[in-house]
Amino acid sequence: MGFRILLFLFTFFGYSLAFGASPTERVKEVTDRIIAILSDNSLKSPEKKEEKVKLIKDEINKVFDWEEFSKRTLAQHWQKLTPQQKEEFIKNYQKLLESVYSDKMNAYSGEQVRYEGEEISEQNSIVKVVVLGYKGADIPLIYRLVQKSNQWFVYDVVIEGISLVNNYRSQFNSIMIKSGYEGLLKAIKDKIEGKGDAIK
Questions:
Q1: What is the pLDDT of residues 46-103, one digit of tens each?
Q2: How far apart are CA 56 and CA 98, in angstroms?
């Protein structure tokens, strides 16, 4: 009897893990929660702005893989960093991307979101999304995801044809070549604080 129970549990949980949420389901789940936050009338007053931003960032953090964002953005420079520098970079780059993405989400004003399909290739996938009728135009988004521990995590977002990773990779590469890691870290911190223009 004990063996049968163990076999059942192994089979059941193995099946659950193997057939977790699809890439589209992962993106949709978090997007729906963010839209609910943006649509919450109790969070629309100016004094609730910080609380709303924090709630949005909390949702983003559930599906965004900041280490993957960092690795893919720094490319060949990533391996040159010490473990401490990697940790420091991830933390600051996360703050920058959270700010950029939450600003984009804050522009939402009730538009419909349409999911146009997904493509999966081994451990990677893309999810195609369109925000309908934003300021009179449809805005295409592409989420790029990687599978880890049977879950899908976002490592890049393409907004109107512009990849966050590719955009920052080019800029960060130029800064690293010119000013090194410390120069790049300073530029990121300045951007977060709204003081610098080295990063667009």
A1: 999 889 989 999 999 999 999 999 999 999 999 999 999 999 999 999 999 988 877 7
A2: 9
Please tell me the pTM assigned to this model: 0.84
Q: Enter the DSSP assignment of 121.
A: E
| Superfamily of domain 2-192, CATH level 4 | Tgt2/MlaC (3.10.450.710)
Rounded Cα distance between 54 and 37, Å, is: 10
Closest CA to 87 of 185, 190, 191: 185
SS3 at position 150 = coil
User: What does the DSSP 8-state code read for residue 15?
Assistant: H
Domain assignments of the chain as residue spans, ordered by start? 2-192
| Residue 60: partners with Cβ closer than 8 Å, 6 or more residues away | 30, 34, 98, 101, 102
Determine the pLDDT at residue 18: 38
